[in-house]
TrEMBL record:
This is uroporphyrinogen-III C-methyltransferase. Belongs to the precorrin methyltransferase family. The keyword S-adenosyl-L-methionine applies. Pfam families: HEM4, TP_methylase. Residues 18-228 form the Tetrapyrrole methylase domain. InterPro entries: 4pyrrol_Mease, 4pyrrol_Methylase_sf, 4pyrrol_syn_uPrphyn_synt_sf, 4pyrrol_synth_uPrphyn_synth, 4pyrrole_Mease_sub1, 4pyrrole_Mease_sub2, CobA/CysG_C, Siro_Cobalamin_biosynth. It comes from Trichloromonas acetexigens. NCBIfam families: cobA_cysG_Cterm, PRK06136.1. Signal peptide: none annotated.
Length: 520
């Protein structure tokens, strides 16, 4: 039936466009490239309960409208959503209608598209990874396999409430289709199992229920048609979940890969500064952890740049420039650029960095490090430079405000003149993000990763001191001995300290700890 709308496209000057985009099942990596491009172009994003909120960051300047529905508690009726789409596009806007999974699979995308067509609003559909496909893949279940089945059905376990569930042709479904995937079926689980068995599916047919598929909360229950109702009741599995029925479910034990990664199910707090957090987060996520970012450091400019600018003005008179971190490299070259200069200002000044990553950062500025200190602390720099003749050499060491004094002190002893201006300051942010605070308070954090002494001190400040009490039951992972010392100063017991002071080694240490193995 045609629905009356206040206007049609013919009455408008320039209708916009609606992209009906499948956002995938939850893992933000499962949106398509095209879907993300459309999202980035959007002026208005209209999204649902199941779509991952991370997507909204792709369109930070767009208007964000939440129209989700949770269970029967409709936030907005489907009709209101349809009207909203027509209205926003009618104003000439580019609208991204973001829907969980695929827009045309049990998502009422078909109804929205029909509405748009009837109102004369242009639209495009960007398919998505539907929950059933994703749940199967992430649970280790190939939905088809030559030895098991050649057919597959996607079925709603919760039809239009006006209809009876029994309107499904159970006889055909049970007998003619190999793999059955039920969406929205948890409430009707016993009916589904009963009908399938009554129509000839053996009671020992394997069944999997996959909840919150593709996310860190993914839960999978395997059973048989005969005992799934009891098992599901015991484990109290709730929606959103899909139910997969068929012998392919049996392949899961061999094909699991997602929920058996070493840190799966572990919630880890990443305390690094916001602009430095990504690398540790990615390493932990790759091992299956759920990472909550809780920046304890904010990098800000020094009180003034007088000392640094003075040194930069006569940069070519220095024999060595020491940069100890990627941040150091970034801030140094940013200041150089602000002063209207570039790398040529260095003349023949040589460069010493700490660690291969800092060297790689430097390389991005077209510069090769003359010395790469291997040890990830100040002593490494001293050891590396001690092999060169430092008598009467002039060294520039732009540093973080709270850097230890070891580099200037030791290099001065070796005969060098060291100028160590403040390049940036580490300050404590105003507060922890709410998600991190709530998870800590609820005791939902398994491990906290500290990558510098200041991350420990600052977390204590952010949590109102008494860190040991706040982190009771949380495994403490520290990147190296100096950070560990600071942990102990706060009364924390260090559970993980790798021998090599790198993020990779820290993550492997955490993996070892949770595997119950030894680590060092
Ligand atoms: N258009 C969506 C389906 C919407 S219906 C799609 O293509 O995936 C909502 C149902 O999808 C839920 O009741 C549940 O059965 C399923 N679902 C959605 N996301 C899910 C997830 N991450 N894990 C398991 N099931 C999910």
């Amino acid at each position: 039936m045609r629905r009356p709308y206040p206007f049609t496209a013919g009455e408008l000057l320039k209708p916009g466009i609606v992209y009906l985009i499948g956002a995938g099942p939850g893992d933000p990596g499962l949106i398509t490239v095209k879907g993300r491009e459309c999202l980035r172009r959007a002026e208005v994003v209209i999204y649902d309960y199941l779509a991952n909120p991370a997507f909204l960051r792709e369109a930070p300047n767009a208007e964000h409208l939440y129209v989700g529905k949770k269970g029967g508690n409709h936030h907005r009726s489907q009709e209101e959503i349809n009207t909203l789409l027509v209205e926003k596009a009618g104003e000439g806007k580019t609208v991204a209608r973001l829907k969980g999974g695929d827009p045309y699979i049990f998502g009422r995308g078909g109804e929205e598209a029909l509405c748009l067509r009837r109102a004369g609003i242009p639209f495009e559909v960007v398919p998505g990874v539907t929950a059933g496909f994703a749940a199967a893949a992430y649970a280790g279940i190939p939905l088809t396999h030559r030895d098991h089945t050649t057919s597959l059905a996607l079925i709603t376990g919760h039809e239009d409430p006006a209809k009876k569930m029994s309107s499904l042709d159970w006889e055909k479904l049970a007998g003619a289709v190999g793999t059955l995937v039920f969406y929205m079926g948890i409430a009707n689980l016993s009916l589904i199992a009963r009908e399938l068995m009554a129509h000839g599916r053996p009671a020992d047919t394997p069944v999997a229920i996959v909840r919150w598929a593709t996310t860190a909360q993914q839960q999978t229950l395997t059973a048989t048609l005969g005992d799934v109702v009891e098992q599901a009741a015991q484990s109290r599995i709730k929606p959103p979940a899909v139910i997969i029925v068929g012998s392919v479910v049996g392949l899961r034990e061999e094909l699991r890969w997602f929920d058996n990664r070493p840190l799966f199910g572990k919630r880890i707090l990443n305390t690094r500064a916001a602009d430095q957090a990504a690398e540790l987060t990615a390493l932990l996520e790759a091992r299956g952890a759920e990472v909550i970012e809780a920046p304890t450091i904010e990098l800000v400019a020094p009180e003034n740049y007088d000392e640094l600018d003075g040194a930069i003005a006569e940069l070519e008179t220095f024999d060595w420039l020491i940069l100890t971190s990627a941040n150091g490299v970034r801030c140094f070259f940013r200041r150089l650029a602000e002063l209207g200069r570039d790398a040529r200002a260095l003349g023949s000044c040589r460069i010493c960095v700490v660690g291969p990553k800092t060297a790689a950062f430097l390389a991005a500025h077209g510069l090769r490090a003359d010395l790469v200190a291997a040890e990830f602390k100040g002593e490494g720099v001293v050891a590396a430079l001690a092999d060169t003749d430092l008598q009467d050499k002039k060294i520039l060491f732009p540093k973080a405000d709270r850097a230890r004094e070891v580099i200037p002190t030791e290099l001065t002893k070796l005969g060098a003149t060291v100028i160590a201006p403040v390049l940036y300051r580490n300050v404590v942010p105003a507060a922890l993000p709410e998600t991190a605070r709530a998870a800590l308070e609820a005791g939902e954090i398994d491990c906290v990763a500290f990558t510098a002494s200041s991350t420990v001190d600052n977390l204590a400040v952010l949590l109102g001191d008494n860190l040991a009490a706040r982190l009771k039951g949380v495994a403490v992972a520290s990147i190296g001995p100096i950070t560990s010392k600071t942990c102990r100063k706060h009364g924390l017991e260090v559970a993980v300290e790798p021998t090599e002071y790198t993020l990779e080694a820290l993550v492997e240490g955490i993996v070892g700890y949770f595997a119950g193995g030894s680590f060092s």
